[in-house]
Amino acid sequence: MTAEVFAPAKVNLALHVTGQRADGYxxxxxxxxxxxxxDTISVSPSDPLTLTITxxxxxxxxxxxxxxxLRAARSFGTGHGAAITLTKRLxxxxxIGGGSAxxxxxxxxxxxxxxxxxxxxxxxxxxxxxxPVCLAAHPARxxxxxxxxxxxxxxxxxxxxxLVNPRVAVSTPAVFRALPRKDNPPLSSLPARFGTxxxxxxxxxxxxxxxxxxxxxxxPVIGDVLTAIAGTDSLHTRMSGSGATCFGxxxxxxxxxxxxxxxxxxxxxWWVQAAPMLR
Length: 279
Prior knowledge:
Elements: E1 3-20, E2 26-44, E3 49-54, H1 68-74, E4 82-87, H2 98-114, H3 121-127, H4 131-136, E5 140-144, E6 148-151, E7 160-165, H5 172-177, H6 197-204, H7 212-218, H8 221-230, E8 236-239, E9 246-250, H9 253-266, E10 271-278
Parallel strand pairs: 3-4
Antiparallel strand pairs: 1-2, 2-4, 2-5, 2-10, 5-6, 7-9, 7-10, 8-9
Helix pairs in contact: 1-2
């Protein structure tokens, strides 16, 4: 039998860096959601453990031993084999958790395929700070080093995201190294509910991405992306994660798709995708 798991794009609607531990890990406070667009992991029986990479963004990855998908598979410690196929649709090193989402989907697919429990929580977190929230795959407030996952108020139906990446890779370690301070204020208190997309956008306008200005300094084209999205019907525009992907928040998928078409026409060299926000 083949097990197949969707690996949705992860979007940091807000990302505050609130501290740094003695071991170097940064402490975060982030509102995370997922888009209805992403990669796919499928597994089928095989004696050895193998990885095949396909898809429109697959050319940017190699199936070497350090690939995060294979690391996730080996984290079970079973020695079992499987033929894993990664269909890659998300650009790499883009701030929307592609690698972490792939690792989380691999854990889900192999747990089902091998009839095994997930590896211990510390092993999962060691794969990457975003892997635990990608394993949960629902809107969440992510804190700690990424290992504390809390529920958030229900989000309104129909919200959509526009994701735009200018085809530049941003080094996450380089961005974090450039942080002038690590003890920034956390997110504001979350309301009991977000009644409308505009209410969510208004709350987001009082939050930050503490990595955005640093990423823009490394790759100024990120500013062009933000300007392009802000010129559409987006209710709120911001960079996700450590970049370079930026997002626009829309009240419905039709407006997001119209904005995607307009930006794709003017900047065919950019990666552009509209998708519903998953709830």
